[in-house]
């Protein structure tokens, strides 16, 4: 063991000595090695730089070659396109040459045709000159005929004027005789009826009728499905006419409450009704933009009046003639119709829709109530506005002319009922009630036959009756369960009728 350790120590010392010797030799030869390596390193750097430059030049050559190749491809393509274009141009030139030849042929043909037409025109001109000469001769004959005709017309007109003067004289004589007979009849009537009662079959009944204040519901009628918007009595009769949402017009006997007849044919809901003074025709204003004129006797439609472009909401008949009818629609027009001709004879245009209207007593004026709350008077012949007044702060819903024609009753959505003087358009009376609320834009109020009472329906189903002399409520009628839309008073003084939104009609006595 000791020998091994000694050997190891000897080996270590030997290795250290050799390492020390190697380091000494390496340090002695280091400068020589560095001197030899320096030129070789510099030459390597130069070769490397040259190699890099050569690579850059090679890349540039490749790029130049690529650009030249692309340019060559483009030029080859352009050459091909140019060659194709040249071929197309050559083909087009050939076609144009052939077309030019065709046009030359056509021009020669047109020239020949023009020569022929020129010759024909010369012939026509010569014929025209001849016809012109004939026309001048005919015009001279026409002038002579017109002069002769004028002489004949003047002669006929003078003869007609003479005949008219004779007719006027005869009419004056007849009117004088009629007045005398009427005076004699009234005197005879006064002598016969010392009790002061005027009976229905006697002269003067229509003017001296007396109305009674209704208090009892005599009949409750389920008249129309969906609602009843209009009721009107026949003139001086107890027959009631109703119109409703079910597109029917019905006639009722108010004594029995039974249905007398049904008029079918309306294309829309019936919004308003009017009856001629001979009780032969009833006119229905419909939501279908039409007016339907029914013959009460036959139940058939006499006329279907068309011309409005929106629903017709109001209608009235002249008190002077049964042939003239007024209508108002939501197309801002009021139309005057001639039932004998069956068409519109005048149209009045207003800037506000009309909800209700009526004729004046003489039939020369239209009284209309509008959505803007104004009451307007129009000339039926010219269609011009005569006067205008603010009647209500909200839309006018009803207009009713009194029996004597001196006053007109208006109702509005402001829940007021105003009585206007037709001559001055000043408010005479205003009727109101705490519970009275107008139900719709077409709620109709009415005046009694003797002009002493005013009746109007309400939203709560009540009907309020005012006295004109007292200017106060004299009766409140309860019988409806839905808003009341329309009221009408019989020309006999009683009964009174009312209709509501559920289609129920009440007869009041």
From TrEMBL:
Start and end residues of each Autophagy-related protein domain: 50-168
Domain of life: Eukaryota
Coiled coil: 51-148
Keywords for this protein: Coiled coil, Repeat, WD repeat
Pfam family, one: ATG16
Entries under InterPro entries matching the protein: ATG16 (IPR045160), Autophagy-rel_prot_16_dom (IPR013923), WD40/YVTN_repeat-like_dom_sf (IPR015943), WD40_PAC1 (IPR020472), WD40_repeat_CS (IPR019775), WD40_repeat_dom_sf (IPR036322), WD40_rpt (IPR001680)
Any GO BP: autophagosome assembly
Family matches, as SMART domains: WD40
WD repeat residues: 221-262, 305-347, 356-388, 389-430, 448-476, 477-509
PANTHER family noted in UniProt: AUTOPHAGY PROTEIN 16-LIKE, AUTOPHAGY-RELATED 16, ISOFORM F
Name of the protein: Autophagy-related protein 16 domain-containing protein
The organism of origin for this protein: Acorus calamus (Sweet flag)
């Amino acid at each position: 063991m000791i020998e091994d350790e000694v050997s190891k120590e000897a080996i270590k010392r030997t290795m250290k000595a050799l390492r020390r010797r190697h380091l000494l030799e390496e340090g002695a030869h280091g400068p020589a090695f560095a001197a030899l390596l320096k030129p070789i390193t510099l030459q390597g750097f130069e070769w490397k730089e040259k190699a890099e430059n050569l690579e850059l030049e090679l890349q540039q050559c490749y790029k130049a070659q690529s650009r030249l190749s692309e340019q060559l491809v483009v030029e080859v393509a352009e050459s091909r396109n140019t060659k194709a274009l040249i071929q197309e141009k050559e083909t087009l030139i050939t076609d144009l040459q052939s077309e030019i030849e065709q046009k030359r042929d056509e021009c020669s043909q047109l020239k020949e045709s023009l020569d022929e037409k020129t010759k024909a025109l010369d012939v026509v001109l010569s014929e025209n000159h001849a016809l012109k000469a004939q026309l001048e001769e005919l015009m001279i004959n026409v002038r002579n005929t017109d002069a002769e005709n004028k002489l004949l017309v003047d002669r006929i007109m003078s003869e007609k004027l003479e005949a008219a003067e004779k007719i006027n004289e005869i009419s004056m004589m007849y009117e004088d005789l009629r007045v005398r007979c009427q005076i004699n009849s009234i005197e005879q009537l006064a002598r016969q009826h010392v009790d002061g009662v005027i009976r229905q079959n006697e002269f003067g009944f229509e003017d001296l009728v007396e109305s009674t204040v209704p208090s009892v519901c005599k009949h409750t009628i389920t008249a129309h499905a969906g609602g009843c918007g209009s009721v009107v009595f026949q003139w001086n009769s107890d027959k009631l006419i109703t119109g409703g949402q079910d597109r029917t017009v019905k006639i009722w006997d108010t004594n029995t409450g039974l249905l007398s007849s049904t008029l079918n044919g309306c294309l829309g809901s019936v919004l308003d009704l009017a009856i001629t003074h001979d009780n032969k025709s009833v006119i229905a204003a419909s939501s279908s933009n039409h007016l339907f004129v029914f013959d009460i006797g036959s139940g058939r439609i006499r006329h279907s009046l068309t011309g409005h472009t929106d629903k017709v909401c109001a209608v009235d008949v002249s008190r002077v003639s049964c042939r003239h009818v007024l209508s108002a629609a939501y197309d801002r027009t009021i139309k005057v119709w001639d039932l004998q001709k069956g068409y519109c004879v005048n149209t009045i245009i207003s800037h506000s829709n009309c909800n209700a209207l009526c004729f004046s007593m003489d039939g020369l004026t239209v009284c209309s109530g509008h959505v803007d709350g104004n009451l307007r008077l129009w000339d039926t012949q010219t269609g011009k506005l005569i006067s205008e007044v603010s009647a209500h702060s909200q839309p006018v819903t009803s207009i009713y002319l009194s029996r004597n024609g001196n006053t007109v009753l208006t109702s509005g959505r402001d829940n007021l009922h105003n009585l206007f003087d037709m001559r001055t358009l000043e408010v005479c009376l205003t009727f109101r009630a705490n519970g009275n609320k107008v139900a719709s834009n077409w709620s109709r109020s009415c005046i009694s036959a003797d002009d002493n009472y005013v009746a109007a329906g309400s939203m709560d189903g009540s009907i309020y009756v005012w006295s004109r002399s007292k200017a106060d409520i004299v009766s409140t009628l309860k019988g409806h369960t839905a808003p009341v839309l329309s009221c009408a008073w019989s020309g006999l003084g009683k009964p009174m009728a009312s209709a509501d939104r559920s289609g129920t009609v009440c007869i009041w006595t």
